[in-house]
Write a structure and sequence with these properties.
The chain is of the alpha+beta class. Helices cover 44% and strands 11% of the residues.
Length: 598
């Protein structure tokens, strides 16, 4: 049993939530709060309608305000809210409620803050303190921020009380990284030198969302910092990281397109990029900027004539100088070597490459330090298609459109889905084109899927040039690291030889790498009658997910893939793969054990 499991016996209706929060955090071995906060004791309340809940809260608070004893009023309110089953989400904000006596309401709020055992009562206390409290309430509020469901209302209240910036910075130190965004957003909203200095030095990585990066850039006044003299390497490097995060395709319009100073910031940073010392992190930052300026959403910014091309040329010339070109050779650690290999692969072509045909396919792998995403960016007449026409989606992976050769044009029309909405294609649709050869031309017709998604205007290409670009992109794997190439070869073998898995009654599979710094290849399988077309059938829950991990054995990708396919042809993968999902009881009927079984 874990330390956390041993803490549950606290009685939910006799221990105040404030004391519970102190206890949970006080015995945490590493002092860090779990993602989402500590679970609040007790069962969730029944679902009352919003208006009914507000009526109950107003009625009970009216009675509480009439009681001259704050301790008795708080206890009665706590008990009654628990009995009535009001959800705390309905009472986190009480600005609508008139307060007949502010001193009484303040005393009641402070009492509830420290003594409430019911989540709704605690929410009432937080809201009242937010309206009427002062600096003396800040320590209690920060203690309660570690409870599940209370971080956002506590932050709202701390903001209303104008707490010191240092309070929010300390809060970041104890919260799980998954929850930092809420606090960082509060810090980014402050016109405060201490907040700006902290944000300027904030580590920016995979957990930093695009919108968060934009808010940070605005908060620290990045454009002014980059144009000031002298400009330090911290400002230049952080500016590059923030631009890279803003330029991500996330399933909504890229944040870089909403960042008004974007062109100004790109220009100021690239013109001063030679002031950065040539080391691996700086090389990766500048390379990421160049890749985005070449084919990513920043291409769609309102550039003055020739400026983007000039900045790309500057970056190309800088990274080609001997000192910068030698940077990847100095990598020593495991992760640095992976990052250095990424730099070598992504420098395979000139950043400003254009095609006379109007079609360009640029395969870009993101910096491994920021994740494991590879995009086949499709540009028409120099402009990236997906961010321009369908921001709800993302540029497809090469495995999705290039490996199956979906873009090859024939006399028969072929519908190709280039991107699906991040939410769900049934919600916002897909970006779908029909590809067809028409004499010495190739035609892309726009098309909507079930009336959803955008429609691309008809676009015509010279057939010979079109074929050449599609074939170049399909066969060029210089961007691909060995583990991913192994995964692609296995996937291609399974696609070409469906009988390999059909023999073992496995209808679906996928093949990926284990992560951006991993040489392990993972083949995933789905098995069971619950994978059938009828979700309401009696066997709908009878399915299993298997993962077969293939560690790197030093062989070439072609040899690793051939060996994997040979084993799939001769032995049932269910017998040597791990069960990593699905129905445990169904696994037991097959005599199999799940991954977490002891």
């Amino acid at each position: 049993m874990s330390v956390r499991d041993e803490r549950e016996p606290l009685a939910p209706r006799t221990t105040s939530l404030y004391d519970y929060a102190l206890f949970r955090h006080g015995i945490e071995p590493d002092g860090r709060v779990p993602a989402g906060g500590y679970p609040v004791p007790g069962d969730p309340p029944p679902a009352l309608r919003f208006r009914e809940a507000r009526r109950i809260v107003a009625e009970l608070l009216g009675s509480a305000f009439d009681d001259p004893d704050p301790a008795r009023a708080a206890a009665n309110l706590d008990r009654c809210l628990a009995e009535r089953g009001v959800h705390p989400n309905y009472v986190h904000e009480l600005a609508w409620l008139p307060l007949p006596d502010e001193a009484v309401a303040r005393a009641l709020g402070r009492r509830l803050l420290l003594t409430a055992t019911d989540p709704a009562a605690l929410a009432v206390g937080i809201s009242l303190v937010g309206r009427l409290g002062g600096p003396e309430d800040v320590p209690g509020l920060t203690t309660l921020a570690v409870l599940e469901g209370f971080l956002q209302p506590v932050l709202y209240t701390l903001s209303a009380l104008r707490c010191d910036t240092e309070v929010l910075i300390r809060l970041v130190g104890i919260l799980h990284p998954d929850d930092h965004a809420w606090v960082i957003s509060q810090l980014a909203s402050r016109d405060d030198p201490a907040a700006r200095d902290w944000l300027l030095n904030l580590p920016v990585g995979p957990r930093t969302s695009s919108s968060e990066a934009r808010h940070i850039a605005l908060a620290i006044r990045l454009a002014d910092l980059l144009e000031a003299e002298p400009v330090g390497t911290t400002v230049l490097a952080q500016g590059g990281r923030l631009l890279t995060r803003m330029a991500l395709e996330t399933g909504s319009s890229a944040e870089i397109l909403a960042y008004k100073p974007a062109v100004r910031v790109y220009e100021a940073l690239v013109r001063r990029a030679d002031r950065l010392p040539p080391h691996l992190d700086h090389h990766a930052i500048l390379l990421s900027l160049a890749l985005d300026l070449s084919s990513g959403p920043p291409v769609l910014l309102d550039w003055r004539a020739g400026l983007r091309e000039e900045l790309l040329d500057r970056l190309d010339r800088l990274l080609s100088t001997p000192d910068w070109a030698a940077v990847p050779d100095g990598a020593h650690t495991h992760k640095d070597r992976y990052r250095a290999d990424w730099i070598r692969r992504m420098r395979r072509e000139f950043f400003g490459r254009t095609t006379p045909n109007g079609l360009r396919i640029h395969v870009v792998e993101r910096d491994p330090a920021l994740g494991d995403r590879v995009e086949a960016r499709i540009l028409l007449d120099g402009r990236p298609l997906v961010p321009r026409l369908f921001p709800e989606g993302r540029s497809p992976s090469p495995e999705r459109v290039l490996d199956p050769d979906l873009l090859r044009a024939t006399a028969d029309a072929r519908a190709v889905s280039l991107a699906s909405a991040y939410c769900d294609e049934g919600c916002c649709g897909t970006l779908t084109v029909t590809v067809q050869r028409d004499g010495d031309q190739v035609v892309w017709h726009g098309r909507r899927q079930d009336g959803l998604g955008p429609r691309l205007p008809e676009h015509r290409f010279d057939a010979a040039a079109y074929d050449a670009e599609v074939e170049r992109a399909r066969t060029d794997d210089t961007w691909c690291r060995p583990a991913r190439r192994t995964a692609r070869l296995i996937a291609a073998g399974l696609r070409d030889r469906p009988e390999l898995l059909a023999r073992w009654d496995i209808p679906t599979s996928a093949c990926t790498t284990a992560g951006p710094y991993e040489d392990t290849v993972e083949v995933a399988f789905w098995y069971g009658p619950g994978l059938g077309p009828d979700p309401a059938c009696d066997e709908a829950n009878q399915w299993l997910h298997f993962t077969w991990s293939l560690a790197d054995d030093g062989r070439r990708p072609e040899e690793r893939a051939a060996a994997a396919l040979e084993r799939l042809a001769t032995a049932d993968p269910k017998t040597y793969s791990r069960i990593t999902g699905g129905n445990r009881e169904y696994a037991e009927t097959l005599g199999l054990r799940c991954q977490d079984d002891s």
